Amino acid sequence: MICDFFKKNLVIESPRLILRPISKKDVGDLFQIYSDTEMMQNRALLPFKSIEEAQNLADFFIRGMKEKTMLRWGMELKENGQLIGTCGFTSFSEQDRKADLGFEMIGTPKGRGLMRETILVLLNFAFTNTDINRVEALIETQDMKAPELLKKVGFKKEGDLREYKMRRGKLTDMTLWSMLRSDFPL
């Protein structure tokens, strides 16, 4: 069951990262990440202009974990403890045995395969600790980098959804990607 997530140790390590639940101490780092205009280019939110926005986001992530409606981790570099992004499951459907994947990372460490490493660790965590059968990712159609990443980790493109989500004040086309338990090499 999906609720089994919340019974596990939610600190996950990969070779180069520590994935850990977001806490109030992350507000400054969240502001840095979510005020990065390049990173926020294909996201639902506009780049942050104030620390209060980061505080609200941290509270949202923390509340989602307490209410067991989402799991959001901070991506911390082992080499220096820097928080470089967030990742996790933005929603779940117990009945449909699925979860929605979300992720963002600031520009500095890009190109090192860190997001690929993160997604593989999250998929392994989901498929070995719960009965989740399907993980979905919705990507804006103009995002050129996320589809490449999703292909590399084994997601399959299922189709384009026209004017599907309200993003930055306008309806935006999205592409649906998925990974099934049977697609993932456990």
- Biggest beta sheet summary: 8 strands, mixed
**How many β-strand runs?**
8
- What characteristic shape results from the CA principal axes? globular
The helix-strand sequence is: EEHHEEEHEHEE
Mean pLDDT: 86
Q: Which strand-content bin applies to the residues?
A: 25-35%
- The neighbouring-strand order within the major sheet is 1-2-3-4-5-6-8-7
Estimated helix fraction:
25-40%
Radius of gyration, rounded? Answer: 16 Å
Note the total helix count.
4
**Gap between N and C termini:** 18 Å
SS-derived structural category: alpha+beta
Spans of at least 5 consecutive residues whose pLDDT stays below 50 are none
Quick recap of the structure?
By secondary structure, this protein is an alpha+beta fold. The protein contains four helices and eight strands. The protein has an eight-stranded mixed beta sheet, with helices on both faces.
